[in-house]
Structure formats: C-alpha cells, structure tokens
Amino acid sequence: MSKAWGLKVKPGDSPAMETMNPKIFYKEINKLSTKPMSLLKQTLLDLENLKIVPSKKLGQNFLVDGNVVDKVMAISDVRNGDVIIEIGPGLGALSEKILKIGAKLFAIELDSRLFNFFKSRFVNYNNLWLMHGNAVDFPTAGLPQNMGNFKVVSNLPYSISSTWISALLECCHLPLSISLITQIETAQRFFASVRTSEICPISIFLQSAYDRVCMHRIAASSFYPEPMVSSAMVSMVRKQNPFLFKPKTKQTIRWVFTKRRKQMGGIGKGGCIELQNWLSECKIATRQRPEEISIQQWKVLDEFF
Q: What is the rounded CA–CA span in Å between residue 284 and residue 195?
C-alpha cells in the first residue's frame, strides 16, 4: 500500500528521481522469479509493469505481508455493508479484502499512476468510489455526509499522519473506528499520557474523541521497500460522547505547547485573556508545565471561547 500522500511535489518532478537504484529494485524481482506467487512478488511485478520505482520523497512503502493484511482486517472488523475510508490504497493490498467482503470503499490516491492502476484493477466492483487528490484536503475521501456511520482502515503515509488526523477531527461526522498503520512514535504520541514528553496537542484532541483499542508493532519486512522507521498498527473507537474542541481553543493549545519548556504562569502572561481567565478559574499552578495539565482541564478551556 502506498504512503504517497500529502507531500508537495513541484511540477515536472518525477516520483522516481530521488529513489533507490532501479537496478537494485529490479534485482529484487528476479530473486523471486522461481518462488510461488506471494503478495511481495505480485507487488514487485505490478511496480515493474507500471515502471514505478518506490519513491522515498513520496513515502511509498507497500504492504507486502499477507498475514499483516489479515490481522488489520480482523482488528478493523470490516463487514459486508460497512462503509470504509482508505487513504492511499496504492496497489490495493487492503482494498481487495475490503471490496471482496462487500463493504463500500471510499478511497483517495494522490499518485496519478497508482490511481489509474487501481481504477483499472477494480473496475468491476460497484462498491468502490475512488478519488484522485490529497487526503489532507479531503480527509474522508469524498464520502457523502448522508452515508451514516463509517470506519477508517489505512496504511497511512507516515509524513501526514498527524496532519490528516487533525483534518479528520475537523469534520462534523467522525468515523466509528479508525485502524491505521503508521510510524510507531506517531501511534504512541496519539495516546500519550499526561506528564510525559510525548503528549502534544494531537494527543489531547484525539483522546477527547477516541479510546485506543490496541497497538501492535509491525516488522519492517512487512513493507516494500522496508521503511527506515519502526511501524505499528493502532486501532481506536469513537467515544460515546466524543468531545471536539473549538478552532480557537485548538489554536491556543497549539500555541501553549510551542512553549512547553516554560511554566504556565509565564506562558499565561503572554497569552490571550481567555487563557489567563482559564488559568485563574481552574487554579492551574503557575509552576505547572503544559504536559502536566489533564485533558479534562484542557476541555474546560474550551468554555472560555
């Protein structure tokens, strides 16, 4: 599955121009020529036929482990009739499973070559809606607002994980569940605890709307090419009463965390009047730092805007 999302590519740039040596890439195909067809071999053959060399610049790492695909599907609990959003479907490793189950799949792909391949490969499926575009601009892949509950199942481009989640949380209708493959540090940051160095604004926003179900490490060998960072699958479900912060509150929290090394007393003096009133009303200790404030206290800040 491709991680080719959300990056700015200048006109005329070739997605293959900054990648691995093509001789090494095609050597990988030849090494598998005598082995039974596998997801890895099929991926390499598809890339060869498309003349695509995976791009580091676009973050293209394709999921090539069938066991991981099955595990993602099991944890995501995709069923016939479900509405699923997939970001960056790439060559369709997850998509094929989703479509064959009978779920309605709304997918968005940025790479025009992969978009055209995907459209051709699954042309006979009437439960597929495919969009060509940037997932940060279209976080729900063009899903109509009247579709009811939906789930997200994706091998996310690591470079846009937090940006895409932030965009998704701006939507008026949140997914029932989210199952993502992403960089392990990002997954840990999503559900970081208070009083740790990992907690950040996206931790606060996401944990106010979702509960984590599980997180599993994924070996680098499950991708082609292997990513240089550790990976994990994280699954979460929407809270019964998800809390969404107002835009002004989010802006303020992000600003506070740019000064996370400072104490709240000093931060408040340079902040807006709403922040100062909140600090006084909630009796936030002047020596507290941003990561020491509970998520519930941040929710109270929302009442001051």
A: 15
Higher pLDDT, 305 or 22: 305
**Which class for 71: exposed (0-12), middle (13-18), buried (19 or more C-beta within 10 A)?**
middle
Q: Residue 212 and residue 28: Cα distance in Å, rounded? A: 37
- Kindly report, residue by residue over 159-218, the tens digit of the pLDDT: 899 999 999 999 989 999 999 999 999 999 999 999 999 999 999 999 999 999 999 999
Judged against a pLDDT cut of 50, whether residue 283 lies above it is answered with yes
Sequence-ordered strand ranges (E) for 57-209: 62-63, 83-87, 104-109, 128-132, 151-155, 177-183
Between CA 135 and CA 163, with CA 50 as vertex, the angle to 5 degrees is 15
DSSP lists the bridge partners of residue 154 as 180
Where are the strands (E) in 123-183, listed by range? 128-132, 151-155, 177-183
For residue 42 the two structure tokens come to 């099929």
The boundaries of every CATH 3.40.50.150 domain in the chain are 62-238
Using DSSP, state whether 168 is helix, strand or coil: helix
CA distance 113 to 115: 5
Among the CATH numbers 3.40.720.10, 3.40.50.150, 2.60.40.10, 3.30.70.20, which is that of 62-238?
3.40.50.150
> What is the pTM for the complete model shown?
0.86
